[in-house]
Design goal:
Strand content: 15-25%
Distance between the termini: 39 Å
Number of strands: 5
Number of helices: 6
Order of helices and strands: HEEHHHEHEHE
Largest sheet: 5 strands, mixed
Radius of gyration: 19 Å
């Protein structure tokens, strides 16, 4: 083949692996998590329906408020263990931010899939149930048995896809 007829994007000797849809969207929410302003855990989430992203969110302080990155972590100062006393935090969870962003822009979360870097806590689980989200795909777990129990009772499947 001459240079004139060479393909625009030559295929290399190795076969490029193309991610399945769940891996693709989990990789995207991994990137979203990098915007997190939480000092304890960076979490990313995204709502997807019909293979289209509806909204994304990461954990951090509400808009127009100072971030924990700048002023410190209230939970650290009070020595609150992970998974407890969620009300003692300036931040919103990634799942909450994704649901809020969808609502803010008039996009229904009903029958969507939530992709999240971590398993939702019980507060987020209740929001997920009432938002009509049908399925959750996570990368990592989170020790919240009540959340898992409530999601199961609501008929929302939680699937874990490892990297």
């Amino acid at each position: 083949m001459t240079e004139k007829n060479a393909p625009l994007h030559p295929v290399s000797d190795h076969v490029r692996s193309r991610p399945d849809w769940d891996t693709y969207f989990l990789d995207i929410v991994d990137l979203v998590s990098r915007r997190s302003t939480c000092l304890r855990r960076a979490v990313g989430a995204g709502l997807v329906r019909d293979r289209r992203i509806l909204a994304t969110g990461y954990n951090g302080a509400p808009s127009k408020l100072q971030h924990c990155l700048d002023i410190g972590c209230l939970r650290e100062q009070l020595k609150v263990p992970s998974g407890e006393r969620h009300e003692l935090c300036r931040g919103l969870h990634a799942e909450q931010n994704a649901i809020i962003q969808a609502a803010l822009h008039g996009v229904s979360a009903k029958d969507s899939t939530l992709y999240c870097t971590n398993h939702p806590c019980v507060i987020c689980a209740k929001m997920i149930i009432n938002a009509g989200i049908a399925r959750i795909v996570i990368r990592d777990g989170y020790s919240d048995k009540l959340a898992a129990e409530m999601l199961r009772e609501a008929g929302i499947s939680v699937e874990r896809v490892k990297k």
